[in-house]
Amino acid sequence: ATQLTPNLDFYVVSKNLLDPYVDVSHWQLEITGLVRQPHIWTFAQVRALPSETRAITLECISNGPGGRLMSSAVWVGVSLQAVIAAAGGAETDAKYVIFSSVDGYTSSLPLADLLEARALLAYEMNGARLPDQHGYPLRVIAPGRYGEQSPKWLTRIELANYHYKGFYQSQGWSDRQLTTTSRIEYPMQKQRITLGPQTVHGLAFAGIRGIRRVEVSADDGATWHDATLKEPLSDQTWVYWTWQWAPSAPGMYTLVVRATDGTGAVQTPVLTSTVPNGSTGQQHVPVQVVS
Fold first, then answer.
1. What's the pTM value of the predicted model, to 2 decimals?
2. 3-state SS string over the chain?
């Protein structure tokens, strides 16, 4: 396992019935608003800016406990910080960044949060040109926020001193940091497994907070055991984990996983729905052990 999601398998969600097709020869990136030198770049000029390569996990706000709307890629692009610097820097009263896309989509986050998360404007994904459906030629990657805060087909960046509500934000959707989530990859729901030692494995993700600990229960949360964490690809990706389980007898078992983020906060067992704030809760996986 490389810990990366192939581009063809990377989750895709779009507000559009038909996504835009961008002719890169006519595309441009504009930065405007509260910057000292508003500027426009062609694609070649964007690619000539200092680049950065980083593995980052994205998660959809519609992803529930154990859900599959979460993927990781190695992105290449230019940091938002570098683009602002190339435009002479931000004015002192710049507090928010408003992103606008070719398809009319908008979103906005506090400038300080985006800089702290090292937001990236990406044009490559897993060693390939950014695919059309992932926002070619340029998309925002806002680490630690749900996917709709990482708009695709970016064409305009505006720095502002007022709070702007974008496409989903104006519908009341959360733009806060994503909640901690964890997932059991093996065994699967209602799987029959033979009595004997088992390597339970999965992943956990808490955005830019990172994962400090993962625990697994084989008795529906009555007792917990520490899993072994694998080194993540970066401080902004999911973390793979394994736990060695030796069920004592045949029967029905319910596996549960929970993660502790880098701040020490434990993933809550309280189940909430996905939209508008992002889901909470722990994944429960019933399995049958047979002799």
1. 0.97
2. CCCCCCCCCCCCCCCCCCCCCCCCCCCCEEEEECECCCEEECHHHHHHCCCEEEEEEEECCCCCCCCCCEEEEEEEEEEHHHHHHHCCCECCCCCEEEEEECCCCEEEEEHHHHHHCCCEEEEEECCEECCHHHCCCCEEECCCECHHHCCCCEEEEEEECCCCCCCCHHHCCCCCECCCEEEEEECCCCCEEECCCEEEEEEEECHHHCEEEEEEECECCCCCEECEECCCCCCCCCEEEEEEECCCCCEEEEEEEEEEECCCCECCCCCECCCCCCCECCCEEEEEEEC
Residue 33's pLDDT is 98
**Phi, psi dihedrals of residue 84, rounded to the nearest 5°:** -65, -40
pLDDT at 1 over 70: no
Is cis: bond before 250, omega within 30 of 0?
no
List, as own/partner pairs, every contact residues 161-164 make where C-beta atoms lie below 8 angstroms and the sequence separation is at least 24, other chains included.
Answer: 161/34, 161/93, 161/94, 161/95, 161/96, 162/95, 162/96, 163/95, 163/96, 163/108, 164/96, 164/98, 164/106, 164/108
Residue 158: phi, psi to the nearest 5? -120, 130
pLDDT tens-place string over residues 135-185: 999 999 999 999 999 999 999 999 999 999 999 999 999 999 999 999 999
| Tokens found for residue 46 | 């964007």
CA distances in angstroms from 218 to 39, 202, 257, listed in the order given: 57, 14, 9
How large is the average pLDDT for residues 250-278?
97
Do residues 182 and 283 lie in contact, with contact meaning Cβ atoms separated by under 8 Å? yes
Percentage of the residues of the chain whose pLDDT score is greater than 70: 100
With contact defined as beta carbons under 8 Å apart, do 146 and 174 qualify?
Answer: yes
